[in-house]
Amino acid sequence: MLTTIIYRSHISDEVPVKTLPAMVDQASLLNASHEVTGILLFNGTHFFQILEGPEAGVLTIYEKICADKRHHNVVELMRDYSPSRRFGNAGMELFDLREHDRSSVLQAVLDKGTSRYQLTYDDRGLQFLRTFVESREKENYFEVPPVEYWDFIADQTGADAWSSDHGVTFHPVIDPLGRQVTAIEAIASGDIAAAAEGVHKYQASLDAARQAFAQAGKACPDGMSLYVSVLPMTLVAIPDAVNTIVEAIHRAGLVPEQVIIGVSETEVISQLDAFSVAVRQLKEAGISLSIDNFGDGSAGLSMLTRIQPDRIRVAAGIIRDVHRSGPKQAVVQAIIKCCSALEITVIAAGIERPEEWMWLEAAGVINFQGRLFTRAGAAVAWPEYREAI
Fold this sequence. Notes:
The protein is of the alpha/beta class. It contains 12 helices and 15 strands. Strands 7-8-9-10-11-12-13-14 form an 8-stranded mixed beta sheet. Helix 5 (199-216) packs parallel to helix 7 (241-251). Residues 122-389 form the EAL domain. This is Diguanylate phosphodiesterase. GO terms for molecular function: blue light photoreceptor activity; cyclic-guanylate-specific phosphodiesterase activity; FAD binding. Pfam families: BLUF (PF04940), EAL (PF00563). Residues 2-93 form the BLUF domain.
């Protein structure tokens, strides 16, 4: 069984195109030593490469490729397994698309194939190849500049208001380029809900929300939006939970219209009809709803057909290294497109790397949370673009 990795990347500005044949010759020798074969396509700006061979060899070669400074924006499009090689004439073969007529270039590439069977467009690897050769989906190629182009400058304004207070920590949601805090999340310290079992964990979740509201007034000046999360079934299992939440909001000097109740998709909602009724009660009171950890649970997009929240927070597991993963990029783009059609605000949570933020900004996300911009109780670090490197 063979392992296949397909990636695309962007040639670095300082690399002369005339050096590519020598580069490929060197790579071909290295690949052959690991029993790796494949084909490298170049269109003048982007590389597209199919690597095939034993898993250990392919992973070793791909690790070296990712570390190579002669290209950047390396995005893994596919990692899969196959019974035979698609391209096996050499350790690596270069195919410069600029040297071929557009009407016949695809067939010219396919003629390089070495499969025992006729190459068809049904093969996933060849579908990726065809898309690249025909220059389709270019609108989804979001190029991010090197990390060195950005500084993150801490702004102490408002940091004191977001510091921990009476067991509650505050985490801002920000629009980095707009330099604006768009919401504050209040979280009661400690894993209160997980410490109890059965219906008691839902009561603990509701108590944690009341604690968060009680300390949240000073963190949400001028009607700023406030995030408070509860376990989803709290709204069903605890009688009069919605009224309890509304009372806690008013007692804290807040108004329901500025409050967003977040419920995590990772917890199974066993009584969806009853949950839907509770969501309606929240909205009738003026409270917004967010589906958190979106993409980590079993409901996913199907939940949006039953319950249309005002916001979703995409799961951190999907966000992590999104700039390097074609599958993650496709999922995020589908989420953004769906939410755009439904007028649902998308928040990307758990941002840790500048590349993640840059790719998501290019894809159309505006609201972010994560350690890249702030830690609990700390100043927001706003991105500043360096004019010259």
